Amino acid sequence: MSSTGLRRVLFSESSPNLGGQELQLLAQAASLPMRGIETLILCRHNSRLATVAAARGIATVAIPFRNSLHLPSIAGVRRVLQSFRPDALICHSGHDANNGALAARLVPDRPALLRARTYQHDQPNAWTYNHLFDRTLVPSNEMRQRLLANRAIDPQRIHLLYPGIDFAAIARRSQEALPAAIIQALAALPCPLIVQAAMLRPEKGHALMLDVLATLKQRGQIIGFAIAGEGELKVQLQQQVARLGLGQQVAFLGMVDNIPAVYTRAALVVVPSSYEPLGMSQIEALSLGIPVVVSDVGGIPETVRHQETGLITPSGDGAAWTAAIDRALTAPEAMRALAQAGSADVLRRFGLQINLDQLIAHIAACRSPK
Q: How far apart are CA 83 and CA 12, in angstroms?
């Protein structure tokens, strides 16, 4: 048992993909045992999360999570709750959150119920936030205010928990060798090199960046662009690259296990999202002293200060992004100075141990008689 009295924490995640939310879950699940707290993850069989968890030696149990009211999933979660007897169940995506919360109410002495909520596209349902979970943890103040725009939601149920990043691991991994195929792909690109690490979804802004590169090419500026990630837009983006004549400038790296080693090869890391509750890649890049240009949306401005630690640019504004990229690449020393200031800032505010301290405190606050 840990010094806090916590013994076990159960995580659940129904997404088949692997993004920032899933990586945060893995970091917490791997680190809590170092504080004497046993962890276990409920996830889909053969999901990317299950694969990476197995490679890292993190225990998982397969639950189908086929929909938000899936009786076999509820029964499966209930069995794990009865055998593992966690102090807390921390849910993430919609299907696992709903099934997990229902299953928890079918066992005596249910665990504290928390949900990590990183996206809210539609109108939030007050009943879900007020009654299904003890607390909902959000990654930015912007996200909290987005939820509380529905005045029926109890503010005492919504709490800020900035993501925690293992900066020592990022620094260590940044010095490790990349796979030969990725090294070859990066070597084939012109310099300076821009890197974007994000799932290939519309809100991540890849299409905007390709248009920016095409505009700069017309002006005689040839820039390399490495895209790390997979997703639904891959074919569409590849077609856009071909249409714009950017085939020699753009590389699709796919899922990259060691993103930090890619960042260290970049002159600039970009986050051109049109929606981002907080974002992780700009924080990771800044921790390594890599300059960033980011959108002015969601929680991103909580991580970067304009012209102090990076450049913040209007989301979706192609002309503004073109000017920002041009400015950043033509003033590398000034950008490096901003990045060094940014490194000190993110190391102070987004460390993994700070995140774990606060997560444990949230669990403890929820562990009152139900």
A: 16
- Report the amino acid identity of residue 75: A
Q: Collect all residues with Cβ–Cβ distance below 8 Å to 3 and sequence separation of at least 6.
A: 35, 36
Helix H or strand E segment including 321 = helix 318-330
Local structure of 173: helix, strand or coil: helix
Strand partners, 292: 269
Same domain membership, residue 332 and residue 355: no
- Strands, DSSP E only, in the chain? 8-13, 38-43, 60-62, 88-91, 112-116, 135-138, 158-160, 193-197, 224-228, 250-254, 268-271, 292-295, 311-313
- Decide if 2 is inside a domain: no
CA 156: distance to chain centroid? 25
Rounded CA separation 341/321 (Å):
22
pLDDT along the chain (370 residues), means of 10: 85 90 94 97 96 96 96 98 98 95 96 92 87 96 94 97 94 97 98 96 97 98 97 97 98 95 98 93 97 96 98 98 98 98 97 97 81
The position carrying tokens 């928990």 is 161
Q: Token pair 């928390």 is at which residue?
A: 114
Same domain, 132 and 199: no
Domain residue limits at 194:
168-349
- Angle (CA) 242 245 248, round 5°: 90
68 burial via Cβ count (<10 Å: 0-12, 13-18, 19+)? middle
Q: Do both 282 and 180 map to the same domain?
A: yes
Query: Against a cut of 0.70, is the pTM above it?
Result: yes
Tally of CB atoms within 10 A around 126: 15
For residue 56, the domain's CATH number is 3.40.50.2000
